[in-house]
Amino acid sequence: MKFTAKKTIKTAIVGGALAATALLSACGGNNVAGNGSPVKNAAVEQAQTGGGRGAAAGGSDAEPSGGDVNCSEHGGQVGAPGRPRMDLIAVAATDGTTPGCTEAYNVITEYYEKLPQAEGPGERVLDVRGKWTCARLTETGTEVVCGVPNSSLQLETRPSGAGKAPVEQDRKFPNTTQRVRFTGYDADLRMVRFQLMTDGKTYRLPLEPGAEVFSAATLCPGESVTIDDEGHGDLPCGKDQLIQQVREGNPVLAQIRVNGEDQIATVKEIYRP
Predict the structure, then answer these.
(1) For the chain, what is the radius of gyration of the CA atoms?
(2) How many percent of the chain have pLDDT more than 70?
(3) Highest mean pLDDT, choosing among 102-116, 185-199, 208-222
């Protein structure tokens, strides 16, 4: 997404040379990756050739952008060594907060540096710059999502697309209905983990803010089983109950409906006698 704020545009034009210097200093990582680090080179290679556009074009960390910000339009694409180059996106939260591009580059650079010590197939790193958590968006993809626990701050890497939400083919299950087994919840990323019943692979997706959850028997225990003609739960049950169940290690078999933004909109527990 291009910046429209006059202050931001003016900063990009007038302070170009200074901005480029600031980007290289902040994103090169004085204490993240050394001068000869392949991680630093991979993360900010394009920033080094971006000339006067630099980090200042992204605004300061405190300056709101009015929407998702494609930092790569101003500082270059990022990527771990040997992996596809991606756009770095500062995600606009519903409360209006957006991380600045300087912070975004610092976070993703340190994440790439820490990949050799990452957890599991999702390459999760819990401590990036002292407060961020980063992981691959899905077990099979290359996109990375980073968030701050108990905060709406979030950044992502996405295939080149001018900072817009990923186009439909880059999403995993947009506008589909799936049968899944929920297996956990990543609180730092605010995503539920589940296995797709068709392939047994593990994925992560966020719950839609207004997601509807329906219990059959165990999600929100009642006096009797509550199911529709297809054996799916029809007792309204809050999404917090779903999160609590999977956090406690109780797998939940369900049918989910995923919206066009790859968020889980509806969860219906599948009844198991």
Answers:
(1) 21
(2) 71
(3) 102-116
- Which pair of tokens denotes residue 198? 């068709």
Q: What would the pLDDT profile of 26-43 be if each residue is shown by its tens digit?
A: 333 333 333 334 444 444
What's the token pair of residue 152? 């709406």
pTM of the model: 0.46
Residues 6 or more apart in contact with residue 36 via CB below 8 angstroms: none
How far apart are the C-alpha atoms of 52 and 81, rounded to whole Å? 26
The upper half-sphere exposure of residue 83, i.e. CA atoms within 13 Å in the direction of its Cβ, equals 21
Which residues neighbour 66 within 8 Å (Cβ) at sequence distance 6 or greater?
A: 4, 5, 92
Q: Are 237 and 219 in contact (CB under 8 A)?
A: yes
Handedness of CA 205, 209, 215, 220 (dihedral sign): positive
Helix (H) and strand (E) counts in the chain: 6, 13
Bridge partners for 234 per DSSP: none
Residues 6+ apart with CB under 8 A from 251: 181, 182, 183
Pairing of strands 207-215, 264-269: parallel
Q: How many CA atoms, within 13 angstroms, populate the side-chain half-sphere of residue 86?
A: 27
Nearest Cα neighbor of 197 from 263, 144, 124, 272 is 272
Whether residue 12 is predicted with pLDDT greater than 50 in this model: the reply is no
Among 240, 231, 92, residue whose Cα is nearest residue 163: 92
Residue with tokens 């068709």: 198
> HSE of 61 in the Cβ direction (CA atoms, 13 Å)?
11
